[in-house]
Design goal:
This protein is α/β, with parallel strands linked by helices and 155 residues long. It is built from five helices and nine strands.
Length: 155
């Protein structure tokens, strides 16, 4: 069983706040960026790797399907922090059998068709809410929290 210490939805994926706050909070030693686009984009990977390197944390970039296929091969010593861009990506991992217990929602940008969710940094549409409901129905705890120590908002 992989040791997944935290899963986070954040449109920005790995950025300064992840390195400064979340890595220390969850005690991970490996960040897994599960994103089909980034898995094939060396420029984005290089930028995110700088943040991971600054914290002494390993980082891997996998497509969603590859994450589903290999997560169960992880060593027990790996304390894994999974980061995805969208609720749909998180849902695909959960439905694919990735043993996620908790998902923290961080930043979800405003875009056409999105409305303000229960917290100022989270914009959702009906599909996002459908994905959140499916994730919760699978027994996964889901809440919004921008930074560790901030107030948690239920989805």
């Amino acid at each position: 069983m992989p040791n997944i210490v935290l899963t986070k939805i954040d449109n920005r994926l790995v950025h300064g706040q992840i390195g400064v706050s979340w890595v220390g909070f969850c005690g991970c030693n490996l960040i897994v960026v599960a994103d089909d686009e980034v898995a094939n984009d060396s420029i984005q990977q290089s930028l995110m790797k700088m943040t991971a390197d600054s914290t002494g944390t390993g980082i891997r970039f996998f497509s969603l399907e590859k994450t589903i296929d290999i997560i169960h091969k992880a060593s027990e010593s790996q304390k894994i922090f999974i980061v995805v861009k969208t609720p749909a990506s998180a849902r695909k991992l959960v439905e694919g059998g990735v043993p996620i217990k908790t998902i923290v929602v961080g930043n979800m940008h405003h875009s056409p068709g999105k409305r303000l969710g229960p917290e100022a940094h989270v914009y959702v549409d009906d599909k996002d809410m459908e994905d959140f409901n499916a994730i919760k129905a699978a027994g996964v705890e889901v809440y919004i929290q921008i930074a560790p120590g901030d107030r948690k908002f239920d989805i």
